[in-house]
Amino acid sequence: MCRAVFLLAVFVLICPVAGALDNGLALKPTMGWLHWERFMCNIDCDTDPNNCISERLYMQMADVMVKEGWKEAGYEYVCIDDCWPSHQRDAQGRLQADPKRFPGGIKKLADYVHSKGLKLGIYADVGKNTCAGYPGSLGYYETDAQTFADWDVDLLKFDGCFMNWTLLGEGYMNMSKALNKTGKSILYSCEWPLYEWPFNQPNYTAIRETCNHWRNFADVYDSWSSVKSILDWTAAHQDVIVPAAGPGGWNDPDMLVIGNFGLSHDQQESQMALWAIMAAPLLMSNDLRDICPRSKELLQNRHIIAISQDPLGKQGYCTAKVDSYEVWERPLSENRMAIAVLNRQEIGGARGFSISAIPSWKICDPQCNVTQILPQYKEMGVQTLHSKVVVFVNPSGTALLTVTPINSSLKRPNKPHWQDTSIKHKHATAL
Q1: % of the chain surpassing 70 pLDDT
Q2: Taking the alpha carbons of 114, 117, 123, 124 in that order, is the dihedral positive or negative?
Q3: pLDDT at position 82, please?
């Protein structure tokens, strides 16, 4: 299955990317912090003041992001999810923050976050209610867009609960227009395809023209089974979703749960590596005030972040499934490749994988330079097409490599050397 999809992926990479939402934002995958997976809808500030959804939580996260190197690493958005508003709009029909939990209001919180050199994200819903039952934006798109602009919000996560799926596209497009009409630069994070897939294959050309990134599949949980299900869905649908991704618009496989409770360190490395390969937004959902040093080091790993933020802006894809391994590859700028070898076997110890079995290893003809980033950084030096080097991968872990062809100036710019002309034309004709 994966090899057949790989051939399709070769074709889509040479096609022009559909026009992106023209707001100049998300030219690289968004990086930041989002409260939902870790803090959910905890509104009990009386008994749990340190973890409830309140202005205090976001101010403390902003403080830590500056103090502990997160901002310097590239994480810039502090994002509010569901459960922030009052249950009623104000007399003018505007959304308002819960006065007990956000006594200063959202504008004051935005000012505070901006004073730290960071940006503030907020949450709303395309339907009549949010998923947690707070007021939705249906019938109030322009009002809510202007309210967010007045509050100086920088990102809107727009959910899709309580909305007839046949009206999703119209609703998401109307909010996109309303945001642009305000004149304020607000990054637009959608969940349009997530809510349409159960009924119909979404129109990704329209989605990309409307949103800066978009959720496709179920919410991530703090578990390896959840992360695996997201990877499986992505691989199964990559011929549809990969062509839509690029500067200005990205597929969003949901939050990074690294630093929480459910993933082993190898599994945390796998999520980080694969999210970088997928050119996914890196939106952490964890408690940055109390995170283990290994998780922090992983999330701030500059080599992985460089793959995520590569200026070529192409999403990676699954290229092979063999012997309980998956190989995922992403073309990078300067004819380089990022390669993730995921060990899906969950028994025994580390297993060896020959790097010459990687589908794009042809870029090492005649030579290439290989760097291992995970599980430990290691310069593997100059290799050839026939190298016998083996990488060892723990159960549910990932080896992450970058490969740089030597004499790459002789190759066509921004096109991997392994693209075969006959394959390209064959599938261009078939499609």
Answers
A1: 90
A2: positive
A3: 98
> Residue 215: exposed, middle, or buried by beta-carbon count in 10 A (0-12, 13-18, 19+)?
buried
pTM to 2 decimal places: 0.91
Q: Pick the closest to residue 311 from 284, 336, 339 (CA basis).
A: 336
Average pLDDT of span 183-202: 98
> Could you read off the pLDDT of 3-42 as tens digits, one per residue?
433 333 333 343 445 578 889 999 999 999 999 999 999 9
What is the DSSP code string of 310-373?
-TT----EEEEEETTEEEEEEE-GGG-EEEEEEE---SSS-EEEEGGGSGGGGGGSSEEEEEEE
Tokens found for residue 381 = 């030096």
Catalytic residues: 159, 219
Q: Tokens for 91?
A: 């007399």
Distances (CA, A) of 49 to 86, 87, 100, 298: 18, 20, 12, 29
Supply the DSSP string of 225-266, one letter for each residue.
HHHHHHHHHHHHHHHHHGGG-BTTBEEE---B-TTSSS--HH
Residue 386 pLDDT > 60, yes or no? yes
Angle at alpha carbon of residue 116, lines to 97 and 299, rounded to 5°:
95
Q: What are phi and psi of 282, to 5 degrees?
A: -105, 85
Closest Cα to residue 196, out of 206, 186, 185, 188? 206
- For residue 282, what pLDDT band results from cuts at 50, 70 and 90? very high
Q: For residue 301, is pLDDT > 50? A: yes
Are the beta carbons of 5 and 238 closer than 8 angstroms? yes
